[in-house]
């Protein structure tokens, strides 16, 4: 899970990128970083562990001069959570400084890395993205674009990239288009970002979404569309729309808010809850879905769970705090709404089932008479190898339990999951439902998944497979 941004042709590009990163914080909270390139082509980098607001200060931004910058927010899906794996990566090779920020996961990084190591490459991180840096640097092509192409022809999997070589910015989306990337105009400059909410905050206007296989070069005022990468069937990540992206963004040409409402509508049609007194969300990710469920069913929408917004990933839980304590720190029920009521709880997804189970207990303790749980996506049955941080198969409750068993485990009166067809149809709108990747729900992985990656994801952390 990562957010990326590239800014060019704007004075103080790092400050613009900082703003953009701030609105991409939801895409990664472990580390943040930026590389800025000045008018002389000198690249400077700053990366740190933690939130964007912790990593960058006024002083740090002053030390990142230039009108070209790229930035990254990271949550590790490949490689450990250490500073060495924070991005953008910055290397110096024969063309000058090369900086790279990657959203997605390469599925063949392990064999490529072994091969590169055998040929003498020295890796500085355990991140899959560093493979790309080495492949670019080792290319024998003369033009930077051809070096990039040489590298991209060898990698498989998911990559949305912003790269600077010297003072030129490149924006690239893999041929299947797993992860989003948008291009915006800011004055006489340009902004490329994972989501449109990052354009909004910088004041940039959306020019267009990058399509699968797009390869764009931006140098000074010029945007050049380079030949597209060799086409493959489109596989947009449906989970971007279900959970990951911000509802105020437009992703894959669809308003995320509208998609989530449509998912709520479909869920209410597939799994109505006749006779319920109210419906509410598990805030914030399922707010729009609960709204949709209410719109379709006519069941009154309520706010019954209040979320503490100050609990970050770094919150230190009291020793031995159980799941219940952790959930209580994050959510508190509104007794007056729940007491004696038959309620519908809408959540976007069930992963391990642990939070949901504790939440149900909290809702019951607050006096709810009946709890009907509705999930706006199908059971998650497998890990994602394309950049979403889903746990191993053994931890996914949907991989080993029937819906009835999950209902029992959660302790709810009824449980309804949206069907796969219902989800992709609602997500596609006027588009083609076949364009989505839904591997974590269906097991239909659009690329080959090498054995070592499967083994790593099933048995041990991915970094073990990536470690040399
Ligand atoms: P669980 O109790 O483990 O099933 O957690 C379910 C909650 O996790 C849902 O409310 C989702 O919004 C949220 N969720 C879904 N995918 C992820 C993810 N990759 N990382 C963190 N949270 C997630």
CATH superfamily of the largest domain: Aminohydrolase, N-terminal nucleophile (Ntn) domain
What general outline do the C-alpha atoms trace? globular
The major beta sheet can be summarized as: 7 strands, antiparallel
Mean pLDDT: 93
Straight-line distance between termini = 23 Å
DSSP strand tally: 23
**Helix fraction by DSSP (H/I, runs of at least 4):** 25-40%
CATH fold type of the largest domain: Glutamine Phosphoribosylpyrophosphate, subunit 1, domain 1
Whole-number radius of gyration?
A: 22 Å
Question: What is the correct CATH architecture of the largest domain?
Answer: 4-Layer Sandwich
CATH class of the largest domain: Alpha Beta
Total number of domains: 2
Give structural notes:
- This protein is of the alpha+beta class and 468 residues long.
- It has 2 domains: 2-232, Aminohydrolase, N-terminal nucleophile (Ntn) domain (Glutamine Phosphoribosylpyrophosphate, subunit 1, domain 1), CATH 3.60.20; 256-436 and 443-467, Rossmann fold (3-Layer(aba) Sandwich).
- Helix content is 33%, strand content 24%.
- The protein has a 7-stranded antiparallel β-sheet. It has a 6-stranded antiparallel β-sheet with strand order 5-6-7-8-12-13, with helices on one face. Strands 17-20-21-22 form a 4-stranded parallel β-sheet, with helices on both faces.
- Helix 9 (256-270) packs across helix 10 (287-297) and helix 9 packs antiparallel against helix 16 (420-428).
- The chain is globular.
- Mean pLDDT is 93; it is low at 458-468.
- Adenosine monophosphate (AMP) binds at residues 243, 282, 285, 347-356, 388-390.
């Amino acid at each position: 899970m990562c957010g990326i941004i590239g800014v060019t042709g704007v004075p103080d590009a790092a400050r613009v990128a900082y703003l953009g990163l701030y609105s991409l914080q939801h895409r990664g909270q472990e580390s943040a970083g930026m590389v800025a390139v000045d008018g002389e082509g000198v690249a400077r980098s700053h990366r740190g562990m933690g939130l964007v607001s912790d990593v960058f200060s006024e002083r740090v931004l002053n030390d990142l001069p230039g009108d070209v910058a790229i930035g990254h927010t990271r949550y590790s899906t490949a490689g450990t959570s250490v500073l060495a794996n924070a991005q953008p990566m910055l290397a110096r090779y024969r063309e000058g400084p090369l900086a790279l920020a990657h959203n997605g996961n390469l599925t063949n990084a392990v064999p490529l890395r072994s091969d590169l190591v055998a040929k003498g490459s020295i890796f500085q991180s355990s991140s899959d993205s560093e493979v790309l840096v080495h492949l670019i640097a080792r290319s024998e092509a003369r033009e930077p674009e051809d070096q990039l192409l040489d590298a991209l022809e060898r990698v498989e999997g998911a990559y949305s990239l912003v790269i600077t070589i010297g003072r030129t910015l490149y924006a690239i989306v893999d041929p299947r288009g797993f992860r989003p990337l948008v291009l915006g105009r800011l004055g006489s400059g340009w902004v490329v970002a994972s989501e449109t909410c990052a354009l909004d905050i910088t004041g940039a206007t959306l020019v267009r979404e990058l399509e699968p296989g797009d390869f764009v070069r931006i140098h000074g005022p010029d945007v050049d569309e380079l030949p597209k990468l060799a086409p493959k069937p489109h596989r947009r990540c449906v989970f971007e729309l279900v959970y990951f992206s911000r509802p105020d963004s437009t992703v894959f040409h669809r308003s995320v808010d509208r998609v989530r409402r449509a998912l709520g509508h479909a869920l209410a049609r597939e799994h109505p809850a006749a006779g319920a007194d109210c419906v509410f969300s598990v805030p914030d990710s399922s707010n729009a879905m609960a709204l949709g469920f209410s719109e379709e069913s006519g069941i009154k929408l309520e706010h019954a769970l209040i979320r503490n917004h100050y609990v970050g990933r770094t919150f230190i839980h009291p020793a031995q705090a159980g799941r219940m304590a952790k959930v209580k720190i994050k959510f508190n029920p509104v007794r007056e709404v729940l007491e004696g009521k038959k309620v519908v709880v809408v959540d976007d997804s069930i992963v391990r089932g642990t939070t949901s189970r504790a939440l149900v207990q909290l809702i019951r303790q607050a006096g709810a008479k009946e709890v009907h749980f509705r999930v706006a996506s199908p059971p998650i049955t497998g890990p994602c190898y394309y950049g979403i941080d889903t746990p191993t198969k053994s931890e996914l409750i949907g991989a080993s339990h029937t819906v009835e068993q999950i209902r029992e485990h959660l302790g709810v009166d009824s449980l309804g999951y949206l069907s796969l067809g219902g989800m992709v149809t609602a997500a596609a709108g006027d588009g083609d439902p076949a364009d989505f990747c839904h591997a974590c729900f269906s097991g239909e992985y659009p690329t080959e998944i090498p054995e070592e990656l499967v083994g790593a994801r099933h048995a041990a952390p991915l970094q073990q497979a990536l470690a040399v």
